[in-house]
Structure prediction request, 200 residues.
Amino acid sequence: MIRRVLLLSIAMAATLAAVAAAEPDRLTVRGEAWQKVLERGAFQFSEANADVLYALSQFGGKCQIHMVYDPAKWHQITFKFVKDGKEFIEIVGHKNSVFRTDKNVLYFAHFGTSMQGCTVTAYDLDSGEKLWETKLNAIPPASHSGYSNYVTMGLGRLGGTEEEGEGVVSITGRESYGDYIEILDRTTGKVLAHRVYPQR
Prediction:
């Protein structure tokens, strides 16, 4: 009797595992849908959205941002996120830094304007905890001397595919050697979709 119950339990577990394997997980389904969106669309880049002034105009976090500029370090700005008089997040960026907020979570793009690539981090603006960090695929690495790199950031959802509570961070990158769009899951930072566009 015990052996029969054990065999049934094993068979049931195997069946459940097979069903789970047959049904794509939510990130896979959403990633495939977003990749189709990228493949259909043309690349667009808004220079007006690629600087800190635009990022500040979109900021909705429940805290203050103090920006520190040191002439001895003319190429950078330090962003200090302050609540109740206490600084709880500090990020070094520059005048072209971009960031967005949703549900008191900060999404910040880290990149150099004269080098390749970009990394996105998410922070809880209640606790200051870093939630995730994702190095983007961006464009393939290449050797270079002079270089230009700017990004814009957006938050969105894909109607008909994403459920309540789901959403993405989108990064649109314009680099000297090519353009790209990368879509990240807002909760985990996982890359859902990515497309590189030819050099201009």
